[in-house]
Design brief:
Layout lengths: L12 H12 L2 H13 L3 H29 L3 H8 L7 H33 L7 H13 L3 H18 L2 H27 L5 H9 L8 H14 L6 H6 L8 H29 L10 H9 L6 H35 L3 H20 L12 E2 L2 E2 H28 L2 H8 L8 H26 L2 H10 L1
Antiparallel strand pairs: 1-2
The chain binds tryptophan (TRP).
Tryptophan binds next to α1, α2, α10 and α14.
Organism: Clostridium ganghwense
Pfam families: SNF
InterPro entries: Na/ntran_symport (IPR000175), SNS_sf (IPR037272), YocR/YhdH-like (IPR047218)
Length: about 475
């Protein structure tokens, strides 16, 4: 059964673009990007983030597409096909582990977002003030029952779409929803431009002050770049394996990275305009989105309607991104283990709901598991930290090395130029150089400093 079934794929380049963009654009842009930029001081951090996207993110993304489209397999199958050396299988193991870790907490945050749509409809945010929105967020995460139920709802929605398959599920949903999302964000920004804090918001985001930048911040920028572009886990390998032979992989990667960054900045402008208009803290952490957006839309005509639209949009983004993480697992279990699609989806959803509940119940001071810590971090934070700052960058580094040093250069040229049809030899040469000599070195530096080794070496040298 498992090998003779014809493999599904995306029907066109446009479909591939929307699916990939649907993976990249998610809670990363709407929830994580604003608070991480806020905690790390704004514009200077952003510049480092852009550098990470260009020098590491894009080359790794193209490499993932290459691995996927060349082998037409899931992350583990793809690596096994590219090299017989067993140690490279760690790429597959890291990817699968990262998919679980991220889904444990990501589906929980998606649940808060879904629940906001319901709460706004119910009128909980009528006449919102800076204090009341903070209280609302605390109540949302406190639980113990509601956040778990919402997390299960998210997993159910994602599962139903995934059981539909690649074309009828992933492709159809992303192609319709991504354009809607873009329009809604623009509407949000138009409103934000009328807020008094808009000027300050622009200078926070675009006027760099390097005294705010820390070495820890550089590392976080790299982790954010990986998280944002869905790299290091095999999502882009899996989606690449569904691309058509005509797809321009460079073009798709560049368009996705640019569009994704624009979405993040547009959301950032709205969030920080609210922060500076209502005297909130830019560094308020994971609750930032939930405490600012309701204020952006309070006290204006159609405010409630726009607020609902925003959280519907955020739910859409979270859903299409979750789908792309889950697909890594589904492709693995169906192709490597011979499971049916339906069985793979349902069993994994149950496991993720179960362990994810522990993560979700650890957020906020009043929640059930708030006191439980591992290595000094709460359960939610440990899954986030291990995946974004360790598993994804290490997975990305190994994939960069696999493509840069193990795969034959002639083959890479052939694959990326679609057998010579695309006249992009110069771009390919430049990419190959960056992939071999720049991305891995940057990643190693950032990684060593993340585990504190670099500081120790510098201390040893300098005495
Ligand atoms: N990029 C998505 C976001 O920004 C999250 C995501 C989807 C992801 N698939 C991934 C992150 C794979 C890392 C790896 O919300």
């Amino acid at each position: 059964m498992k090998n003779n079934k014809r493999r599904e794929g995306f029907s066109s380049g446009l479909a591939a673009f929307f699916a990939t963009l649907g993976s990249a654009v998610g809670l990363g842009n709407i929830w994580k990007f604003p608070y991480v930029v806020g905690e790390n001081g704004g514009a200077a951090f952003l510049l480092v983030y852009f550098a990470c996207i260009i020098l590491v993110g894009l080359p790794v993304m193209v490499s993932e597409f290459y691995i996927g489209r060349k082998t037409r397999k899931n992350i583990m199958g793809a690596v096994k096909e590219l090299t017989t050396k067993k140690r490279w299988r760690s790429i597959g193991i890291i990817g699968i582990l990262a998919a679980y870790f991220i889904m444990f907490f990501y589906t929980g945050v998606a649940g808060w977002v879904y629940s906001y749509v319901f709460k706004i409809l119910r009128g909980d945010f009528n006449g919102a003030t800076a204090q009341s929105v903070q209280q609302q967020f605390t109540n949302t995460t406190a639980g113990p029952v509601a956040p778990i139920v919402w997390q299960i709802i998210v997993l159910t929605v994602v599962s139903v779409i995934l059981i539909g398959g690649v074309k009828k599920g992933i492709e159809r949903i992303t192609k319709t929803l991504m354009p809607v999302l873009f329009i809604l964000i623009i509407v949000c920004d138009i409103r934000a431009l009328t807020l008094p804090g808009v000027k300050e918001s622009f200078s926070f985001l675009f006027k760099p002050d390097f005294s705010h930048l820390t070495s820890q911040g550089i590392l976080i920028a790299m982790g954010l770049a990986f998280f944002k572009l869905s790299l290091g886990m095999g999502t882009m390998v899996t989606y690449g394996s569904y691309f058509t032979e005509e797809d321009n992989m460079f073009g798709t990667a560049a368009k996705v990275a640019i569009s994704d960054t624009i979405v993040s900045l547009l959301v950032g402008i709205a969030v920080f305009s609210a922060v500076f208009s209502f005297n909130m803290e830019a560094s308020s952490g994971p609750g930032l989105l939930f405490m600012t957006i309701p204020l952006v839309f309070s006290k204006i005509p159609f405010g409630k309607f726009l607020l609902i639209a925003f959280f519907v949009l955020a739910s859409i983004a979270a859903t299409t991104a979750t789908i792309s993480m889950f697909e890594v697992l589904i492709a693995y279990y169906t192709e490597q283990k011979g499971a049916s699609r339906k069985k793979a989806v349902i069993l994994n959803a149950i496991v993720i709901a179960f362990i994810g509940a522990f993560s979700t119940l650890s957020v906020g001071e009043t929640s059930l598991l708030s006191g439980v810590t591992i290595f000094g971090k709460g359960i939610f934070d440990i899954f986030d930290f291990l995946s974004s700052n360790i598993l994804l960058p290490v997975g990305g580094l190994l994939m960069a090395l696999l493509v840069g040093y193990i795969a034959p250069k002639e083959d890479i040229k052939r694959e990326l130029s679609n057998n010579g049809k695309l006249k992009i030899a110069n771009i390919i040469d430049f990419y190959y150089f960056v992939l071999r000599y720049i991305s891995p070195i940057l990643l190693v530096i950032v990684f060593l400093s993340s585990v504190g080794v670099l500081e120790k070496i510098i201390k040893l040298i300098t005495g």
